[in-house]
């Protein structure tokens, strides 16, 4: 097994990885920016090393600095977590060239799936249902108008290298198309360094359902069931649950089979997530594949009792998966709320600052993934998520009840948070009925 793993990330996911490594007897190294000098991940790892100033491009996105940190500390593997360099094929390739194992898929797979337009074509050729739209990257405006007319408005313009809700524009008529293409392309260039865009038919009020897969280097691939990620604000997830309220055994079988086929077609290894849109008639369409661990992975761990971080590490080391599809059993129901330092009353304005008082909820079936502590100062440079609250219970109704009292017990003083907002969602009648869709939260916020 690996002797020492460097974690090329920060915050709660870095702490999460440290804990799995400890249980496996693996020495850990963390990297931190000067703004994160007093962060939990830098304090609890076996070793920590500063890699630059607060700006992400000079620290957590500085591949050369991270490779050098590996060399200085003798780390034989890198876990990228999510975000930052986790889906950067050049970084994965640089690790390989320097004799450092990248805990994730191959650079080739990352490149193939990172281009959303190309990935869509790959899935189409593999027989996985895809959303009607462009075959690859969009060309000129005239051809885009012709395509939009043929598939019918509304359509979505999306960044080929996109993610996290960036580089996406809805277009309801031909008059809006050119401006939307320009805006999406410019945003894509700014966030991803790639201005290419593609078009998809807009599936009206769908469910956003993703399937977790694990694939080893010996050709073994399994899925670990679905996660419903339909409660979103501005295309960014707010709350996730598993199983999905709309799922049936037949639909799970069909979607799971498609997810596994997608991974096999791409020669994929390690953990990955295939994201689908499901329409009102329960037709499903491939949307994209994320080549990393997901923020919401704990709910899958809760219902399958499989540690996904440990699985990633073992697969990267070359060990067999040791699981057949029949071994995967989903037990109970799990919900995750993302706790952010932000003010929902002020258009979700970020709220960095010092945490003066902190109380985490507890009890059976409650898990918290976080890197905050009393006295910690949340820096203004990074994502506003400060914790993930996970509830697990035998039924969906019991999981909702657990989450209600857990949110009620969660206290953070000194900064604004979305805890009360999350509590309002858990109590929402449409959520409790399980009838919400991708656009429900947007409609709810606009109405209010």
Task: Kindly describe this structure.
By secondary structure, the chain is of the alpha+beta class. It folds into three domains: 4-103, Rossmann fold (3-Layer(aba) Sandwich), CATH 3.40.50.20; 132-201, ATP-grasp fold, A domain (Dna Ligase, domain 1, 2-Layer Sandwich), CATH 3.30.1490.20; 207-447, ATP-grasp fold, B domain (D-amino Acid Aminotransferase, Chain A, domain 1, 2-Layer Sandwich), CATH 3.30.470.20. Helix content is 35%, strand content 26%. The protein is built from 15 helices and 22 strands. The strands form six sheets. An eight-stranded antiparallel β-sheet has the order 13-12-9-10-11-14-21-19, with helices on both faces. Strand 6 (155-159) and strand 7 form a beta hairpin. Helix 4 (89-97) packs antiparallel against helix 5. The longest helix has 19 residues, at 174-192. It is globular and about 60 Å long. The relative contact order is 0.12.
